[in-house]
Fold:
Amino acid sequence: MKKHIYIFSPSSAVRDKAAFKRGVLRLKTLGYDVEIDEAALASYQRFAGDDETRLAAIARAAASGADVALISRGGYGLTRILPQINYKAIDKAVSKGMRFVGLSDFTALQNALLAKTGAVTWAGPAVGEDFGTEGQPDDIMEACFDDLITGQGEGTGWRLPKVATKSIAANAYPATAESRLNINNAVLWGGNLAVLSSLVGTPYLPAVKGGILFLEEVHEHPYRLERMLTQLLHAGVLAQQKAVVLGQFTNYKLVPHDKGFKLATVVQWLQNRIKAPVLSGLPFGHVPTKVVLPVGKKVTLAVEERDAFLLWGHSH
Amino acid sequence: MKKHIYIFSPSSAVRDKAAFKRGVLRLKTLGYDVEIDEAALASYQRFAGDDETRLAAIARAAASGADVALISRGGYGLTRILPQINYKAIDKAVSKGMRFVGLSDFTALQNALLAKTGAVTWAGPAVGEDFGTEGQPDDIMEACFDDLITGQGEGTGWRLPKVATKSIAANAYPATAESRLNINNAVLWGGNLAVLSSLVGTPYLPAVKGGILFLEEVHEHPYRLERMLTQLLHAGVLAQQKAVVLGQFTNYKLVPHDKGFKLATVVQWLQNRIKAPVLSGLPFGHVPTKVVLPVGKKVTLAVEERDAFLLWGHSH
Structure:
C-alpha cells in the first residue's frame, strides 16, 4: 500500500509555486500518495494564510490520518501562534503513528509540542526546497525520508571534521576502548538556532536534561550565532546537555572587520564554555543533503575516531 | 568645574577612528574634561580587545570617578562577558553619582546591572556615531546629554504618531480629565530589542513588574522584530508592564513578499496582544536625535492628546 503524505503550510506563504509543484510531482514519482491541504497555497501578508487559517491547517494535518505530515516550506509564522496550537491533537496523531516532518520555522512547533506533550516529530526536508529543487533532489535526503516513512530508519552517521575530533579529545569525555564517545538514552532535540533561542524563557522550550541538542542556521553571521548560543548558555540550557551537535551553518557573509572572528571561533568558544562535547558536521540544515532526525526521541550518540552516529533504533 | 567624561569600549572595536577623534574633540569643545580609557581603541577580532581587556576597561570606567562613563560605540561583545562583569563595582560608582551612558549592545550591561543590583544607568549617545558625526551633532542629543551630566534633566517629551493615540483610546486605559494616560512610579527599562530579547530566560533580564519597557532596533526586518517581541510576550514579560514605549526602528528593508506586513502591522499586532498601551515615536534609537533615558529609574509616563512625557524628576 502506498504511503500517505499530507502537505500543509504552517509558516510562510509558498512563493515559488513551480518548486512546490515539482516537489509534489517528485513525491508522487517516488511512489507516495500525496494529499495537499486546502490552504497549502494560501497567502496573507508574509504568511500562508492568517493565523486562524494556519492553525486550521495544522489541525487538518493532525486529523488527516497520513503516514507523514510534511511542511511545504519554513519561513516565519509559527512562534506567534504557539499559544493557540492544539498540541493534544498532534500528540494523538503521533501516538497513532503519524510523523510530522519539517525544519527551520517548524522548529517552533516541534519543540513546543515536545515541551507540552513529549511527542516525537522529525526534523527533515520540506516540499519545495528539497523535493522541488530544479535539479535532481538529493539522494541521501530522499533515502532518509523513505526510510522514515517506511519505518526502516534506525539512525544516521556522518564524518566529523577534524576540529571536532580534537575538541572531543581535549574534552577528556569518558571514552571506551572501542569508541571515544558513547552516550545512551539521551533525548535528541533542537533544530534551527534562531527559532530555538527565541523560545528560551517561554513555556515552549522543552526542559530537556541530559539531552543531545542539535542546531543549524542559515543567513546568520557568526557573531549573531554566538549571541543566540550565549542565550542558551546563560539560561543554563547547554549545561544540562550531554552533547551539542552542530549541523550546517550556511549562507552568511564574513566582513573585513571580523578580523579572524569566524564560525570556527564561535564553535571553539562554545566548547570552552561547556563540559559536554561539541560535535560538528551533522548533515542537517538549509542544505540539500539532510538526514531526518527525531526531535524528542531517546538516542545513542557514538563517536569512533572521526565517525559519528546518532542511533534511535526502529521508529515503530 | 568641568564635568569629567570617561570614554571606554566595552563592545565592538572602534573602526572609524576619525569619527572617534571628532567625537572626543566635540566633547572637549562642549566644555567637558575628557579622559580616554587606555583600551578604548584596542582591537581583537571584532571586539575592542579580548574579553579580559574589555572587562578591565569596564572596571577602570567604574573606578574613574568621572561624572559620566560614556561608550565609544555599541556593536557586539557584552552578552558573552555578562557573567564576569563586576556589577558591585559599577553599582558603587553609580551610588557615588557616576552615570553610565550608552546604547545598543550596552543594553546588555545596563539591564544585567539592573537585574543584579538595581543600579540606574542611562540610555543615550555614543562617542563616535553621535558626537563624532561628520556634520554638526544633533542639538537635542547634545542638550539632553548636557542636562544629564549637569543634573538638570527632569524628563523628556515627544509627539505621538496618530496611530499610537488611537491605540490608547481603543485600549480604554484609565484616563483622567486632564490626561489620557498617567502612570506613576513605574520602573523604566529596556533598550535594544535584539539584545534585550537575548537576555530572556537568563539571570541578566531584570524582573521588572509594573514597569515601562522602551525598545529600539536597527537593521531588523519587522518579522524579526515580531519574533523578538513574541519571546518577550510568551515569557510573560510584556504582561507585567504598565506600558511599552517604542523608539525608532530603522534601516530595515521591506520586500515584495511582505505584502503589507510592515512595522505598523507588528505594532498593532503587539497592541492586540497586551492590555498595556503601546506608544510609539520615542526619540531614541539608532538615529541622530536621541534623548537620554534612565534605565532602572522610577518614572511617570503621561499622555495628553498626542503629547507624551516621561518624567523622572531631578537625577540628583
Notes: The first helix of chain B runs from residue 17 to 29. Confidence is low (pLDDT under 50) at residues 169-178 of chain B. Residues 154 and 313 of chain B are 4 Å apart (CA to CA).
